């Protein structure tokens, strides 16, 4: 279990990275935290000819406010985000998500940008950034562009990143007032990939009716799976137990598209999705009513 | 070797410089190039935790880093904690509580716990379980490890 | 007997080295000029090898050689049978087929080795292995334990006209007669699946042929260095003194680190001799899942006949055991199942029909528990079902059937894994069982706690299971104990050590005999240069068999010390005491001599000695029991399950353990904790998933789920003590005990927690997914 040979570059600026990506195209792979990439390289499932290590680039690990939200450099490590007071205050869903990701050793090294660019459908950050309607700043030699999460994740381990692109920044907008959130997942052991998980965000209007709802599932399809019809069921309605049951049922039986593997059948995943959606919506609703 | 790269790194306070194939895993670099074999390799896919070392003070899996990535950084391995005649208090507590049997996972558990205990000097059993949940042990069922951590915490936190 | 050192919670002497990273494991061996091996293994489980092209691999810079079966010529030979079937059993069908060093003709399980690359680094060796081109003709795989016996099935071994590896029947009393008397006969089918030992250290070998000295040294992460040395010498045409096998610190064994030989164990020394260079190979985790032996897959059809009061009148079972592609380990594992399917109960009528089959899966040899967990699972599940049908208290049914304390030694009249009659030497089961019920608060839980929790909407259940473990079987082990002129003690034994604390526990035995500090004893295990008679570490036998050999040798040294000291101090032996490294005249503390001085006097450099004198204060002794020492224990848990998510939480776990005399309770407790963790794995987490092509689908630690710290409960251990009557120390083994009853306890607790659902659990391991399916089936039926 040793990786195949590669050419190694450790540029110290984004522009150098972009030059290298431009030069090597599909042969090159960016090495951020490496906590998903290196295991695959050790199994020789991935054999990039060129590795562009972006750990030596300064100023990609910031967490700052920006207008109505926060912005994170792509190299913010999981532990850094987990401990950050700004994230705790402004993006509590993200704060709560962090300790549920992998193990402490992985979180110490793994980066937010790396996890998002890897786009594993079972990754919490993929679902949570989608639920929070995050935007991603992408650079290449031509310039930069912002891509919303809904367009960033395009399929199984696929994003809208082209070979010459680099993800440099993530923006997460503040939730409106009277919003509540929840992340629920079931994993065999707490740090394993979840069999299924759901990130729920609910916003209530002044009359306690659901103004908007977002349900995003992990391990439920090729990418983050948004249950749009279940959200429509909730919209404009007074949240009740029956409504939650109906929405959960809709999402779990009609909208998500989980697969079979050795850990769980699609059927069991749908069942779990149903249970977790109910629990997540109930918690999100309680939090929304709480005023935040 | 044609494709080599120079790595300068401080390990356990000692500066080293070696020329390596860039794909050399940090675990192999420590064990083979620096002959620090206390860091053990159990899975090479980031699950077992046996290879945990401290990179600039933080616990990381050395099988999920390439040697050139630690150029200019500081590493602490199990060899940097205590010596045969002068065990680190955590090592002493491990011995006291019989927290190791075959001892293969132990270096990675020690390196995981040293920074943890600095930040959390008085953890509960549940917190200790969480703290070592990234380290697999097949011999102890973890119980004596938890006892040892409590013992170490008591001794250092009067 | 009162002891000063035995029975104390002594800190381990091996720890400082392990804790500081100074202990030598095979992976740490580094020799000048060392080369590295990597293997090309078959991805197919069953396929003909049509052609092998190594030309591109040889062109990679740094590659020294590539070897295939053809290169081995006449040296190519299947491994020897490590364990033969018991010669004492009649009418045994046994088709012996052993693993090969390199595949010739046909691959029989995924992971078998087609070619070996030797290169300047492991990285380069793996690069080259990727360049080897092998043309395969894939064949349908033999997977299913029953279908493989149907006429026309694909065959694992073409030279056999069947996939039958073995068949035998063991019989005691008259089951059919007992059945006629029964008030209740229940029959059930059980499925038990495969798990891995998954020691944290994978296997590893460094083989170093020294041409000038004509000497081979092999560092091997094995539980059995002496048989490996003897076998290698025989295979390589060497004398035994030309081969030294060292099992240094070994990072966990749990059974699979005994084979003779693993393919790599044969091939690498052979190549080292060809090249005259040291060769190193450390198994990686992926290889470990394919190439290291596994266990536990069996299907049982069981019948139990009972009286209406709950007395077991008889048990009948027919079971199939999957041995994988080869059967080098004989019948050890399924014989253990046969021996343990009566638990600790007085069963007068027993009929057990065993069929062993070959499949295209990884070879099966014992893993911690070794067939015993299956036996205990079956008898305990059957008792739970019987109690339910008879509307009796399941705990009362167990009490009713225990072998009573005055019935020992209890002869089971069948043959066990040691080829001897299965005799339980001693035991006192009921008090230990009552203690367990008390620790878990059984009565109160059932009457008060459980209904209260249920009213709160919680599903919490209780499970309590007693079990026996046959331990400490023969043939023998030996030890040498020697007093050095420094007054320190050097000792050696043949068994290897993989975390069992031998260096401390055996030192305690010696310290007890010779009146020295534990830290004054230097104990060597697992190095054939130090001690070359013995078999290995298996069957929970270290403390019993090696422990008593150490005790015998130390006792003999004590006699020599007393004899010499008596002469020098001019005092009768019975007035002498050994303490603090000295021999003292009792009541006259100033009249004394140190052990070191005595050692010097016992080994004079000049002058005459009496004829027949043996030099030094040294002794070598052996211990070989006629039959084993049977340990007993009870495990219990309180289990909470969320019937919506199928997630579990073990709220409480208790054990009562009777392993006779404990040399070091701290070590005993550690052994139990570790065993329980594997047992919990076998109950709800650890399953090797093979598909219809005999492909293993979860060959990584990310997908093969070993319990971590967050899955393990706190375990409360209580010790009972019924000393073994047939060895001087009174020890019984405990190494495997922790793992044995756990799946049975778990199943009982889970059924109890989900009482509303009326589940009957007849398989292990379970998983959340499987539990969901079982609950769904219940719903569909109702």
Structural class of chain C: alpha+beta
What is the overall silhouette of chain C?
globular
**How would you write the strand order of the largest sheet of chain A?**
4-5-10-6-7
Biggest beta-sheet profile of chain A: 5 strands, antiparallel
Query: Over the alpha carbons, how many angstroms does the gyration radius of chain A reach?
Result: 19 Å
Mean pLDDT of chain A: 97
CATH class of the largest domain in chain A: Alpha Beta
Strand content of chain A: 25-35%
Helix-strand makeup class of chain A: alpha+beta
CATH-defined fold name of the largest domain in chain C: Aldehyde Oxidoreductase, domain 4
CATH class of the largest domain in chain C: Alpha Beta
CATH architecture of the largest domain in chain A: 2-Layer Sandwich
- Total count of domains of chain C: 3
The overall average pLDDT of chain C, rounded, is 96
Q: N-to-C SSE series of chain A?
A: EHEHEEEHHHHHHEEHEEEEEEEHHH
Q: What's the Cα radius of gyration of chain C?
A: 28 Å
What does this structure look like?
The complex is a heterotrimer of chains A (292), B (158) and C (782). In chain A, strands 4-5-10-6-7 form a five-stranded antiparallel beta sheet. Chain A has a four-stranded antiparallel beta sheet with strand order 11-12-13-14, sandwiched between helices. In chain A, strands 1-3-2 form a three-stranded parallel beta sheet, with helices on one face. Chain A is globular, with a radius of gyration of 19 Å. Chain A is α+β, with helices and mostly antiparallel strands and 292 residues long. The model of chain A has no long low-confidence stretch (mean pLDDT 97). In chain A, helix 11 (241-255) runs antiparallel to helix 12 (266-289). Helices cover 36% and strands 26% of the residues of chain A. In chain A, strand 6 (135-140) and strand 7 (143-148) form a beta hairpin. Chain B has two domains: 5-80, Ubiquitin-like (UB roll) (Roll); 89-156, DNA polymerase, domain 1 (Orthogonal Bundle), CATH 1.10.150.120. Chain B has helices at residues 26-33, 89-96, 106-119, 125-131, 143-156, and strands spanning 5-11, 14-20, 52-55, 58-61, 74-76. A five-stranded mixed beta sheet of chain B has the order 2-1-5-3-4, with helices on both faces. In chain B, helix 2 packs across helix 5 (143-156). The longest helix of chain B is centred in the C-terminal third of the chain and has 14 residues, at 106-119. In chain B, 64% of the residues are buried. The model of chain B has no long low-confidence stretch (mean pLDDT 96). Chain C is built from 19 helices and 32 strands. In chain C, strands 3-6-1-14-11-12-13 form a seven-stranded mixed beta sheet. A seven-stranded mixed beta sheet of chain C has the order 4-8-18-17-16-9-32, with helices on both faces. In chain C, strands 21-29-30-31 form a four-stranded mixed beta sheet, with helices on both faces. Chain C has three domains: 26-139 and 201-251 and 257-291, Aldehyde oxidase/xanthine dehydrogenase, a/b hammerhead (Aldehyde Oxidoreductase, domain 3, Alpha-Beta Complex); 393-473 and 626-781, Aldehyde oxidase/xanthine dehydrogenase, molybdopterin binding domain (Aldehyde Oxidoreductase, domain 4), CATH 3.30.365; 475-623, 2-Layer Sandwich (Aldehyde Oxidoreductase, domain 4). By secondary structure, chain C is α+β, with helices and mostly antiparallel strands. Chains in contact: A-B, A-C, B-C. The A-B interface holds A 1-8, 10, 31, 34-35, 38-39, 42-43, 51, 53, 55, 79, 102-106, 108-109, 189-191 and B 3, 5, 21-23, 25, 28, 44-46, 49, 52, 55, 58-61, 63-66, 68-69, 71, 112, 116, 131, 133-134.
């Amino acid at each position: 279990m040793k990786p195949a040979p590669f050419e190694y570059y450790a540029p110290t600026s984004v522009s150098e990275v972009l030059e290298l990506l431009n030069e090597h195209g599909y042969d090159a792979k960016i090495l951020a935290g490496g906590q998903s990439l290196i295991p695959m390289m050790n199994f020789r499932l991935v054999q990039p000819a060129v590795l562009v290590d972006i750990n030596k680039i300064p100023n990609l690990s910031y967490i700052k406010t920006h207008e109505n939200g926060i912005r994170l450099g792509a190299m913010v490590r999981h532990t850094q985000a987990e401990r950050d007071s700004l994230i705790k205050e402004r993006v509590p869903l993200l704060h709560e998500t962090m300790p549920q990701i992998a193990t402490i050793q992985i979180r110490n090294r793994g980066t937010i940008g790396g996890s998002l660019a890897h786009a594993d459908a079972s990754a919490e950050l993929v679902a949570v950034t989608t639920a929070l309607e995050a935007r991603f700043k992408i650079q290449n030699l031509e310039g930069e562009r912002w891509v919303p999460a809904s367009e960033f994740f395009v399929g199984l381990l696929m994003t809208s990143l082209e070979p010459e692109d680099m993800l440099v920044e993530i923006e997460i907008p503040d939730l409106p007032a009277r919003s509540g959130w929840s992340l629920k997942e079931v994993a065999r052991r707490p740090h394993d990939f979840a069999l299924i998980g759901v990130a729920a965000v609910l916003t209530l209007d002044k009359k306690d009716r659901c103004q908007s709802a977002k349900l995003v599932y992990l391990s439920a399809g090729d990418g983050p799976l948004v249950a749009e019809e279940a959200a429509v069921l909730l919209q404009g309605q007074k949240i009740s137990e029956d409504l939650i049951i109906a929405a959960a049922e809709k999402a779990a039986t009609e909208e998500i598209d989980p697969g079979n593997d050795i850990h769980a059948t699609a059927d069991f995943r749908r069942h779990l999705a149903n249970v977790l959606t109910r629990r997540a919506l109930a918690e999100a609703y309680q939090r929304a009513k709480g005023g935040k | 070797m044609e494709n080599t790269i120079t790595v300068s790194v401080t390990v356990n306070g000692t500066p080293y410089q070696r020329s390596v194939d860039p794909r050399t895993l940090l675990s192999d670099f420590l064990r083979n190039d620096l002959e620090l074999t206390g860091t053990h390799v159990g899975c090479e896919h980031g699950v077992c935790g046996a290879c945990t070392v401290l990179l600039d003070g933080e616990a990381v899996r050395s099988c999920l880093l390439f040697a050139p990535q630690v150029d200019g950084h500081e590493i602490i391995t199990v060899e940097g904690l205590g010596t045969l005649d002068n065990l680190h208090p955590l090592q002493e507590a491990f011995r006291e509580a019989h927290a190791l049997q075959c001892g293969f996972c132990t270096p990675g558990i020690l390196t995981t716990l040293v920074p943890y205990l600095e930040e959390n000097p008085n953890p509960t059993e549940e917190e200790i379980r969480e703290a070592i949940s990234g380290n697999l042990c097949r011999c102890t069922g973890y119980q004596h490890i938890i006892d040892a951590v409590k013992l170490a915490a008591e001794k250092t936190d009067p | 007997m009162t002891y000063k050192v035995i029975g104390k919670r002594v800190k381990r002497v091996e720890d400082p080295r392990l804790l500081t990273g100074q202990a030598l494991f095979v992976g740490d061996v580094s020799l000048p000029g060392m080369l590295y091996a990597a293997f090309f293994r078959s991805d197919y489980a069953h396929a003909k090898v049509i052609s092998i092209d190594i030309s591109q691999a040889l062109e990679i810079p740094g590659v020294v050689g590539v070897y295939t079966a053809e290169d081995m010529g006449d040296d190519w030979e299947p491994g020897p049978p490590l364990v033969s079937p018991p010669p004492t059993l009649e009418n045994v069908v046994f088709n012996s087929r052993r693993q090969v060093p390199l595949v010739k003709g046909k691959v029989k399980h995924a992971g078998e080795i087609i070619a070996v690359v030797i290169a300047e680094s492991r990285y380069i060796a793996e690069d080259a292995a990727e360049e080897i081109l092998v043309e395969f003709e894939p064949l349908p795989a033999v997977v299913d334990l029953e279908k493989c016996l149907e006429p026309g099935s694909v065959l694992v071994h073409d030279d056999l006209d069947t996939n039958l590896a073995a068949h035998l029947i063991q019989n005691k009393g008259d089951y059919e007669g007992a059945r006629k008397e029964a008030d209740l006969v229940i029959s059930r089918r059980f499925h038990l699946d495969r798990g891995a030992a998954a020691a944290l250290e994978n296997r590893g070998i460094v083989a170093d042929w020294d041409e000038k000295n004509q000497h081979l040294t092999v560092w091997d992460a094995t539980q059995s260095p002496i048989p490996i040395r003897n076998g290698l010498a025989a295979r390589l045409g060497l004398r035994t003194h030309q081969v030294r096998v060292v099992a240094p610190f070994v990072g966990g064994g749990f059974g699979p680190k005994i084979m003779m030989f693993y393919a790599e164990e044969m091939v690498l020394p052979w190549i080292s001799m060809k090249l005259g260079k040291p060769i190193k190979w450390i198994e990686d985790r992926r290889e470990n899942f394919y190439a290291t032996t596994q266990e536990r897959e069996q299907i049982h059809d069981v019948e139990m006949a009972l009286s209406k009061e709950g007395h077991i009148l008889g048990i009948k079972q027919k079971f199939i055991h999957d041995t994988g592609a080869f059967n080098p380990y004989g019948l050890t594992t399924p014989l253990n199942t046969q021996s343990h399917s009566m638990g600790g109960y007085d069963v007068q009528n027993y009929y057990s029909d065993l069929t062993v089959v070959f499949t295209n899966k990884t070879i099966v040899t014992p893993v911690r528990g070794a067939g015993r967990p299956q036996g205990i699972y079956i008898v305990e599940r059957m008792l739970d079902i019987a109690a339910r049908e008879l509307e009796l208290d399941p705990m009362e049914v167990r009490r009713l059937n225990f072998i009573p304390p005055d019935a020992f030694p209890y002869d089971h009249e069948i043959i066990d894994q040691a080829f001897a009659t299965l005799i339980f030497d001693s035991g006192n089961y009921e008090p230990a069982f009552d203690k367990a019920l008390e620790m878990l608060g059984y009565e109160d839980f059932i009457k008060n706690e459980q209904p209260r929790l249920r009213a709160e909407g919680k599903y919490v259940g209780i499970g309590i299971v007693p079990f026996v473990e046959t331990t400490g079987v023969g043939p023998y082990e030996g030890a040498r104990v020697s007093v050095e002129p420094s007054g320190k003690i050097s000792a050696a034994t043949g068994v290897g050590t993989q975390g069992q604390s031998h260096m401390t526990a055996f030192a305690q035995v010696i310290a007890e005999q010779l009146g020295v500090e534990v830290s004054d004893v230097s104990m060597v295990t697992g190095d054939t240069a130090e001690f070359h008679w013995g078999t290995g570490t298996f069957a929970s036998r270290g403390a019993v068999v090696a422990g008593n050999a150490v005790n015998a040798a130390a006792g003999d040294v004590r006699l020599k010390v007393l004899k010499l000291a008596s002469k020098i101090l001019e005092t009768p032996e019975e007035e002498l005491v050994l303490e603090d490294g000295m021999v003292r005249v009792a009541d006259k503390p100033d009249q004394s001599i140190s052990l070191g001085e005595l050692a010097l006097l016992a080994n004079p450099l000049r002058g005459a000695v009496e004829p027949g004198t043996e030099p030094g204060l040294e002794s070598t002794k052996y211990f070989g029991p006629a039959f084993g020492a049977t340990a007993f224990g009870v495990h219990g848990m309180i289990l909470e399950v969320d019937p919506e998510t199928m997630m579990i939480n073990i709220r409480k776990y208790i054990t009562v353990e009777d392993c006779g005399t404990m040399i070091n309770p701290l070590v005993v407790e550690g052994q139990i904790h570790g065993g329980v963790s594997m047992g919990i794995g076998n109950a709800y987490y650890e399953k090797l998933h093979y598909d219809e092509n005999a492909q293993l689908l979860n060959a990584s630690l990310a997908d093969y789920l070993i319990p971590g710290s967050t899955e393990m409960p706190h375990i409360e251990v209580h010790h009972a003590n019924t000393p073994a009557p047939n060895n001087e120390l009174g020890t019984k083994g405990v190494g495997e005990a922790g793992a044995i009853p756990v799946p049975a306890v778990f199943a009982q607790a889970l059924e109890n927690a989900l009482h509303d659902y009326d589940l009957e659990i007849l398989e292990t391991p379970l998983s959340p997914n499987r539990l969901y399916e079982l609950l769904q089936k219940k719903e569909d039926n109702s």
